[in-house]
Structure to design on (770 residues):
């Protein structure tokens, strides 16, 4: 049988000892993030990517070996297992190849070949095979077939006898593994996909218009094009076929199968091979090729989804500061939720700035009072309906304040899904669904990762044909991505939701619930050791989870770092040698030179772990995510009709696909920057240039209001690289750009004594009509 560790080491360019160590740790229940971070010495510093590749290929090969055992047993029970066949099956490394080898022995429903055997025609087929040799004697097929005519068995003529023999031979040819493998490769190499839009759909009436008369070599098709074609076919809008030179296929089969010089036998074989291909091979091979390409397209699309989701989850947080979340609306008003610096819901108000003048002025007063009452530092405005109009209103309101909060338009994709979810209902059972949406929008600005883990990634809108790919595979890879991001950043043990805790290494849903229950009953955790008092969180779960959980301002300074508790002893020894307290961690890292690390190497803690510890001590409690940035949408550009060719705008990348990037420019419809317009150089993969959440400068190329399509460019006439907005610190006051102002009397600071409430007439006098 296959030596799996040795094979994996060769395939992944690793040492066998690395593979064996990693597999042993996984078998012990260790998670990939834990092994990658805290078991570098055992695995030879394998990365998380290498570990996931190893686990995936190990799972594939293990399943393959189990399938081999089942197939060998089945063939042996039939008494047909030869040494040659056993060797072929044992050496097989692909599931497709294995199933081809098993095909002749697989139990079948009744076929034309089995019916022919029931009629006693197998000896005739075997006799004809003896004639298929260069040195075979000349013989009459008709004369031999006459011997098999038997009306009681349903063979009434010579033609029926020969047809039955041909059916038996055709089935044997169609099941030959080497022939199927060659033809499958030929179709993958030379096949051409051809699509047509059905006559029921006139020109310009469908989103699949580019595929109306479309053809492309299957080896050259892009993943998104294939998924689009398959979707069009499933929706019965497109007809799709894989075309190829069938004459070449038949010539190949004849060259492989016909050996005789006898013209009658050659003619018989040519007819038999044509039938074998047309009836028994063609459809199954085409299906196999399309399935293989679909699998490839799925993987490529899932990789794109993974990359986009990772960028979205690791988007820079604006910071845990008092925040207003605004879910915009016209007729139903804007829902405003005030949150504390820890994300706790404080207060809710509905304002109506887009209706009457009086309501607009009242909305301004309400907004200012909320800002002052809760000392708001951030305002998050959803980018849905009325988002730009609400943004303009808030901009004008903030001009009356001496120190206005930072105002950011937030992508609210999936917020409505969260608002109606069991998670939101359990968290805010007494709040309306719209209020929950405003809370979610605010929290997305404070900490995107902590909030977005509550939503099914497919609802966030950063995928490419995510509903068309293998859903089980998609869920697996997206769950891995979320797990990776959560453990990369780390989790505040005293503020994390149970949904966020569930993705921490070693913690399942039950333990996450128990952690929250313990926290609610006993107050904030003071040190990591307290975790062992949580129900069902034993030593193994503690080992896996502790290093990824942070405690700020706790008893143990190291609890606010990624240093694992199992390494506290060595850090304390280093601090003692340097005569420094653990509270001065940066000084410890500064004074300990890398050359001195070897002094502290033990059997379990080597130099890789010590280097990681020093990096943590340099900036304890740091957030590894990038610095916060936000886009400033152009004033006066709120809808597609406001756009014109050549206009330069600032926007935010909302999605990256294989064919380009979608950018939110503030008009309720994302524009597309095609891959050819991403840079002044050739780009094969858009992810080389842009990522989700990136703030970019774009130029309008085309606007089609009828189809709601906007074409954008990041190329510049001078050939410069794409423009990317530099980072803006979250405490930087954003520039105010406004042509018209809502006249609001400057308001007192929150710390000052507030003025007495004005009468309605006095309030009206303070405001001017927009």
């Amino acid at each position: 049988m296959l030596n799996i560790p040795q094979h994996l080491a060769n395939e992944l360019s690793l040492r066998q000892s690395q593979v064996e160590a990693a597999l042993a740790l996984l078998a012990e229940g260790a998670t990939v993030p834990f092994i990658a971070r805290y078991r570098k010495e055992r695995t030879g510093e394998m990365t998380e990517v290498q570990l996931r590749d190893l686990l995936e290929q190990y799972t594939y090969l293990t399943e393959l070996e189990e399938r081999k055992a089942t197939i060998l047993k089945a063939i042996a029970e039939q008494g047909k297992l030869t040494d040659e066949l056993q060797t072929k099956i044992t050496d097989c490394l692909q599931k497709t190849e294995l199933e081809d080898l098993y095909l002749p022995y697989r139990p079948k429903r009744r076929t034309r070949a089995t019916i022919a055997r029931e009629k006693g025609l197998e000896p005739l087929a075997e006799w004809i095979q003896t004639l298929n040799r260069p040195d075979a004697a000349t013989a009459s097929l008709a004369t031999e077939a006459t011997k098999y005519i038997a009306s009681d068995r349903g063979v009434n003529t010579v033609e029926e006898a020969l047809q039955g023999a041909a059916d038996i031979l055709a089935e044997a040819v169609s099941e030959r593994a080497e022939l199927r493998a060659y033809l499958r490769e030929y179709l993958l190499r030379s096949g051409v996909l051809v699509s047509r839009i059905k006559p029921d759909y006139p020109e310009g009436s469908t989103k699949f218009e580019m595929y109306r008369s479309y053809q492309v070599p299957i080896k050259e098709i892009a993943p998104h094009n294939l998924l689009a074609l398959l979707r069009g076919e499933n929706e019965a809008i497109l007809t799709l076929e894989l075309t190829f030179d069938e004459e070449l296929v038949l010539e190949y089969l004849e060259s492989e199968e016909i050996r005789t010089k006898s013209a009658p036998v050659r003619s018989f074989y040519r007819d038999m091979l044509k039938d074998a291909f047309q009836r028994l091979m063609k459809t199954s091979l085409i299906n196999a090729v399309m399935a293989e390409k679909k699998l490839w397209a799925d993987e490529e699309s899932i990789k794109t989804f993974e990359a986009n989701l990772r960028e979205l989850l690791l988007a820079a947080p604006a910071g845990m500061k008092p925040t207003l979340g605004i879910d915009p609306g016209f007729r139903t008003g804007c829902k405003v939720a005030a949150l504390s610096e820890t994300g706790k819901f404080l207060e809710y108000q509905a304002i109506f700035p887009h209706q009457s003048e009086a309501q607009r002025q009242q909305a301004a007063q309400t907004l200012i009072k909320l800002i002052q009452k809760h000392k708001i530092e951030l305002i998050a405005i959803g980018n849905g309906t009325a988002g730009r109009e609400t943004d303009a209103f808030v901009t004008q309101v903030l001009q009356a304040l001496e120190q206005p909060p930072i105002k950011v338009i937030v992508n609210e994709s999936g917020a409505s899904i969260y608002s109606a979810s069991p998670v939101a209902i359990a968290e805010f059972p007494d709040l309306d669904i719209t209020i929950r949406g405003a809370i979610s929008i605010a929290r997305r600005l404070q900490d995107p990762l902590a909030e977005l883990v509550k939503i099914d990634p497919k609802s966030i809108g950063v995928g490419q044909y995510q509903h068309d790919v293998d859903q089980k595979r998609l869920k697996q890879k997206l769950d891995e991505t979320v797990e990776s991001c959560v453990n990369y950043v780390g989790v505040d043990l005293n503020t994390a939701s149970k949904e966020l805790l569930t993705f921490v290494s070693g913690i399942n849903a039950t333990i996450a619930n128990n952690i929250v229950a313990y926290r609610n009953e006993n107050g904030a955790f003071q040190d990591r050791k307290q975790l062992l008092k949580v129900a069902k969180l034993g030593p193994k779960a503690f080992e896996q989870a502790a290093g990824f959980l942070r405690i700020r301002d706790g008893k143990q300074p190291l609890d606010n770092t990624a240093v694992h508790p199992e390494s506290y002893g060595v850090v304390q020894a280093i601090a003692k040698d340097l005569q420094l307290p653990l509270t001065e961690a940066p000084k410890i890292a500064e004074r300990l030179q890398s050359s001195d690390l070897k002094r502290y190497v033990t059997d379990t803690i080597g130099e890789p772990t010590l280097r990681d510890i020093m990096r943590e001590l340099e900036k304890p409690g740091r957030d590894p995510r990038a610095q916060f940035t936000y886009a400033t949408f152009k004033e006066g550009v709120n809808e597609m009709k406001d756009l014109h060719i050549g206009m330069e705008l600032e926007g935010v990348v909302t999605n990256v696909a294989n064919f380009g990037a979608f950018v939110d420019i503030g008009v309720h419809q994302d524009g597309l920057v095609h891959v050819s317009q991403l840079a002044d150089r050739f780009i094969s993969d858009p992810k080389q240039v842009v990522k989700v959440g990136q703030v970019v400068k774009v130029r309008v190329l085309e606007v089609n209001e009828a189809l709601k399509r906007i074409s954008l460019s990041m190329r510049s006439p001078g050939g410069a690289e794409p423009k990317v907005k530099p980072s803006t610190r979250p405490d930087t006051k954003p520039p105010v750009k406004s042509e018209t102002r809502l006249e609001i009397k400057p308001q007192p600071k929150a710390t000052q004594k507030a003025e007495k409430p004005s009468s309605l007439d006095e309030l009206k006098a303070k405001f001017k009509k927009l």
Residues 113 and 168 are 4 Å apart (CA to CA). The two ends are 80 Å apart (CA to CA). Residues 725-770 have pLDDT under 50 and may be disordered. The longest strand covers residues 648-657.
